[in-house]
Design brief:
Length: about 800
């Protein structure tokens, strides 16, 4: 009721503001005002062109202004359709008619807002008050995937677009594929029973072993002009496969509509992957890789929300038999050892049974560990099979998986997703990292974070720091960025400052390309085909997604492109800032994550406490110790990590043997093996430094850890005071070749932060705002969600 009251208040304010605007300004209507200001901006742009001032940013504002005036007209003429679309989202449903009524003028006023900002900025540049760097556009035809970044026009490049772009529009339609909305070619998400839109799916293969040539044209007819990526979309399975394999759907997941252990499923997908891999080899549409799955997970615990979507409602005989074989290897054929662990009495490995979904009461028990570990093993094996099939015919193909971030940063580990193994496997890093710009619109979602921060940044951040620690030299692709809205949140009055901050932070932390959720307007302003008529999707995500999205927000859609322009204009600086060592690492154990009910909750608390200290944080695992140069980090923190395998323990000892530093929160950490058996061995300092604390608090651990990396801290001292007991200013510093310092500041708090900059040496400094070319004092205010990119020089 409280949220409904706030929404009604918002509507009243909009209507009241509209009345006041009509009575106080010279324009009869918001549309008239918007059109008039378009002419003002165009006049200024002509003046700027004569002075050789770059007007790329203004061209985008102008484009979005014209588009949304057109969209507002469509919405005004089709209020019943808009009301229906609002009604598909339960948060908006009670007020769908009044929202449809107010939307056209809301959009027009937001157009006025972006025009006013653009006019103000260009006037400043014309008067010499600011000087902006010209935009370095993405070359949509010729950008290339290099070792760990995309390159366009000889510089690092951050391609951007919208995921699931309006279906039915040809890829050559410049009203949909352009610099403003992005121009990546990609197979979009489909929620119909039969897939479409260039997604590679199960229906391509017919029972006789031949391929459906009509469906194949969706792939083969893609113009070889713009760069992009292709999806392997595994939602459905043909009827002929079901007839041959009655178990084919047993053990399915939300977005994988079949059992990945089924031999016929593998045969079908092996043929499809090989054939499409050959057909698309070397095409520009694969420059950003082949995506093997959409948000894969196989949650297999009782009472999980995925159960109602038929996810892991049981397991097939194929999965059970493969599990039995895996257990036989794990226990070296010793059934007595398994029975002792499981408290069972199986006569041999072929008689082992397990109930799936598994009871959460078993968390911490050997049977829980074995199932969860095996579930990860079989998933990794499935994607290894996918990649091997592709590389057999297309060895240079880049690959990634749209990893579902919650499966990493939330506590459950019954989902079968080994983030480290999958990040190591694919040639690119793939995911769909999210953020919440406002408190959740779902009453059951905890929004306590809002007390401290302007937006929920930590899930996106911890995911990036983990995958970038695992594979620091890989390109990072967010193929469905939910920064603008999601099923958890949306806000018609979303802040442009939030958009700039979150896209900047994600890029700073490793994101090389992104496609946002989602663009669903056809060029005439109508919603795309899938949103017309009666919506009846298997997954309700798309149906309710249009309401309150960027498709109704000219200020948000425009700001996405504006921040991507700026990021691409300063791409070399962004790469320099993020390609720094991670001297402080948090130890991550999949063993403890599986066995400990709140392992990630605890790790995230420690992570957040250290995130604002001016150094990129990193993670450490057994594999990272064994595969990467140990000298690239300085200190490791072990926190609330009770369970580790003998191999993990041995890796930690080897790190100490090489001279590393380990801080352990208590004698409880590293105490048990994966089955809860107490370990007799103790770590030895050897050539390194071992600090074992006694049930230390996060504050104590933080103090000791920061002391260990004190000599790794930047030369620029950044003091920040937001009036709170915790920090909200994210800072990165890198020394440049000319001796100057590049400093990036982002405030994710509600309060303005008072900033003071100085050098450790105490020498005097000059500071320049690189976005405006203006000088900055050493003490200044950093507004909530403000982003600054500064250059500091010694005088």
């Amino acid at each position: 009721m409280k949220k409904q009251a706030l929404l009604l208040g918002f509507l009243f304010l909009i209507l009241l503001t509209g009345c006041n605007l009509k009575s106080e300004n010279k324009y009869k209507t918001p549309k008239e005002e918007a059109i008039s200001k378009i002419e003002i901006l165009k006049s200024l742009m002509n003046e700027a062109k004569k002075k050789s001032i770059d007007i790329t940013r203004e061209e985008t504002t102008l484009w979005f202004s014209k588009e949304f005036i057109k969209f507002a007209d469509w919405d005004e003429a089709h209020k019943d359709a808009i009301s229906k679309l609002f009604g598909y989202e339960r948060y908006y449903k009670p007020n769908k008619d009044s929202l449809a009524e107010m939307l056209p003028d809301f959009e027009r006023r937001k157009v006025i807002q972006i025009l006013d900002k653009s006019i103000e900025d260009l006037n400043k540049e014309l008067k010499g008050e600011i000087k902006r760097r010209p935009v370095n556009k993405v070359d949509w035809q010729n950008a290339k995937a290099a070792d760990n970044m995309f390159v366009s026009n000889g510089k690092p490049s951050f391609p951007y677009d919208y995921f699931s772009k309006t279906v039915g529009q040809p890829l050559t339609n410049e009203a949909v594929y352009n610099d403003h909305l992005g121009a990546l070619y990609h197979g979009g998400e489909n929620l119909y029973p039969v897939d479409h839109d260039r997604a590679i799916n199960s229906f391509l293969l017919k029972e006789d072993g031949t391929f459906d040539q009509e469906l194949m044209k969706e792939i083969t007819s893609i113009p070889d002009t713009n760069i992009g990526f292709l999806y392997y979309w595994s939602m459905g399975i043909p009827e002929w496969v079901e007839k041959k394999e009655p178990e084919i759907r047993k053990g399915r997941s939300l977005f994988t509509g079949f059992d990945i252990d089924n031999p016929l499923a593998r045969e079908v997908w092996g043929k499809i992957i090989r054939h499409t891999g050959e057909l698309t080899k070397g095409k520009k549409v694969t420059e950003l890789g082949y995506v093997f799955a959409n948000e894969p997970h196989w949650y297999s615990e009782k009472d999980h929300w995925t159960y109602k979507y038929k996810e892991m409602n049981g397991i097939s005989s194929y999965t059970l038999n493969k599990f039995r074989s895996w257990l036989k290897d794990k226990y070296n054929g010793n059934i007595k050892a398994l029975n002792s662990n499981w408290d069972s009495s199986f006569s041999n490995f072929n008689t082992i049974e397990i109930e799936v979904p598994i009871d959460k009461a078993l968390i911490g028990k050997p049977v829980w560990f074995d199932w969860c570990r095996y579930n990860m093993h079989r998933t990794t094996e499935w994607f290894t099979f996918n990649q091997n099939e592709l590389h057999a015919v297309n060895p240079e193909a880049d690959t990634h998986i749209k990893l579902f971030p919650r499966t990493f940063y939330e506590d459950s580990r019954s989902h079968g997703m080994d983030f480290e193994a999958l990040t190591e496997l694919t040639t690119m890093i793939g995911h769909d990292a999210k953020a919440l710009g406002s408190p959740s619109i779902r009453p059951h979602i905890n929004s306590d974070w809002y007390k401290d921060y302007a937006y929920k940044w930590d899930g996106m951040a911890i995911l990036h720091d983990f995958v970038e620690s695992v594979s620091p030299e890989k390109i990072n692709v967010n193929s469905e960025s939910h920064f603008l809205s999601s099923g958890m949140w949306r806000d018609l009055e979303a802040r442009t400052s939030y958009v700039r901050n979150v896209y900047w932070l994600a890029t700073l932390m490793g994101m090389d390309a992104n496609t946002g959720w989602f663009w669903a307007r056809d060029p005439d302003g109508s919603p795309e085909d899938r949103l017309e008529g009666e919506l009846n999707f298997f997954d309700p995500g798309l149906g309710g997604a249009y309401a309150g999205s960027n498709n109704m927000q000219p200020h948000i859609a425009n700001e996405v492109t504006q921040v991507m322009y700026d990021l691409n204009s300063f791409s070399e600086e962004i790469i320099a800032l993020r390609e720094q060592s991670r001297p402080l690492r948090l130890f991550y154990s999949e063993t403890s994550a599986i066995n400990t009910p709140q392992y990630m909750t605890q790790i995230r608390k420690l992570y957040k406490s250290l995130f604002f200290e001016g150094l990129p944080l990193g993670f450490l695992t057994k594999n990272i110790i064994e595969k990467q140069d140990n000298s690239t980090w300085n200190t490791v923190i072990v926190y609330k990590t009770k369970y580790v395998t003998d191999a993990e323990f041995a890796a930690m000892q080897s790190y100490l043997d090489k001279g590393g530093t380990i801080i352990i929160d208590s004698s409880e950490s590293l105490l048990m093996n994966e089955y809860g058996k107490k370990r007799s061995q103790k770590l030895s300092a050897s050539k390194g430094k071992l600090v074992i604390l006694k049930n230390a608090s996060i504050a104590e651990i933080k103090k000791i850890a920061l002391a260990e990396v004190a000599d790794q801290m930047p030369d620029v001292i950044i003091e920040s005071d937001n009036g709170k007991s915790f920090k909200t200013t994210i800072s990165r510093v890198v020394k440049q070749g000319n001796g100057s310092y590049l400093v990036n500041l982002l405030n994710v708090g509600h309060n303005t932060a008072k900033i003071k900059l100085s050098l450790k040496s105490g020498k005097s400094i000059t500071i320049k705002n690189l976005m405006t070319s203006n000088s900055v004092d050493s003490e200044f205010n950093l507004a909530s969600e403000e982003v600054l990119l500064l250059e500091i020089k010694q005088e």
